[in-house]
Design a protein that fits this description.
single chain, mainly alpha, hpI Integrase, Chain A, 9 helices, 5 strands, globular
């Protein structure tokens, strides 16, 4: 169908049902503030440490985190555009139109990112924020090495079963702890269907989004 050998029609996979395939085998891991800082305390290498802080402060999918470029950050208005994702070092557009919504950046996180930019070899606007020196900056870091770094830090902190998506799940939990309205949480999680967030409807304004996101960022950046 893609190459026009066949006329476009119904996706045949829609006809396939696999019992239990859509159910989680275990509940996603959420971290307390203390557990998060316990893990972070065992991450000294850069850019791993800054990547973890960015993931926790913004609740990004790891594919979105990896595909950030310096030009995506609006330093004056303190926000970041989520334009693309990186999966197995293949770069593609962001998951959905909702995924591409700009995110507010806490001033503390902006300072952390600027500190990393001063250390990085790749600082041009069109460079990857997490450009891999092994790839001469042409590609961002590969996911598997980053996963190993997070899991090793978790093991040292006595916390098993974590990965990069743990930070997105935790971000959602911390949003709840701030008492944020459901609509604000949906906007910050950038999910098209609010049922994905918690099955309730609501609305949000940018000022409220920035305030709520700032509360979560301060939990992550408290040190």
């Amino acid at each position: 169908m893609l190459w026009e050998y066949l006329p476009c029609g119904r996706n045949p996979m829609e006809l396939v049902k696999i019992q239990g395939a859509s159910k989680r085998t275990q509940e996603p891991r959420n971290l307390t503030v203390e557990e998060f800082h316990g893990i972070l305390g065992h991450v000294k290498r850069e850019p791993h440490r800054t990547m973890i802080l960015t993931a926790m402060c913004l609740g990004l999918r790891v594919s979105e985190l990896l595909a950030l470029k310096w030009r995506d950050v609006d330093w004056k208005r303190l926000r970041v555009r989520i334009e693309r994702g990186a999966v197995r070092n293949r770069i593609d557009d962001a998951k959905t139109a909702y995924s591409r919504k700009p995110m507010p950046i806490d001033a503390g996180l902006a300072e952390v990112l600027l500190a990393w930019r001063r250390k990085s070899e790749f600082v041009n606007d069109d460079d990857w924020i997490w450009a891999s020196p092994a790839m001469a900056g042409e590609k961002p870091y590969f996911y598997t090495s980053l996963l190993a770094a997070v899991q090793a830090a978790g093991k040292k902190a006595g916390i098993e079963g974590i990965g990069w998506h743990t930070f997105r799940h935790t971000y959602r939990t911390w949003l709840d702890e701030t008492g944020a309205p459901t609509g604000v949480q949906q906007k910050l999680m950038r999910q098209a269907d609010i049922r994905t967030t918690m099955n309730v409807y609501g609305d949000a304004i940018p000022e409220t989004m920035r305030e709520v996101n700032g509360k979560v960022a301060k939990m992550a950046l408290r040190a």
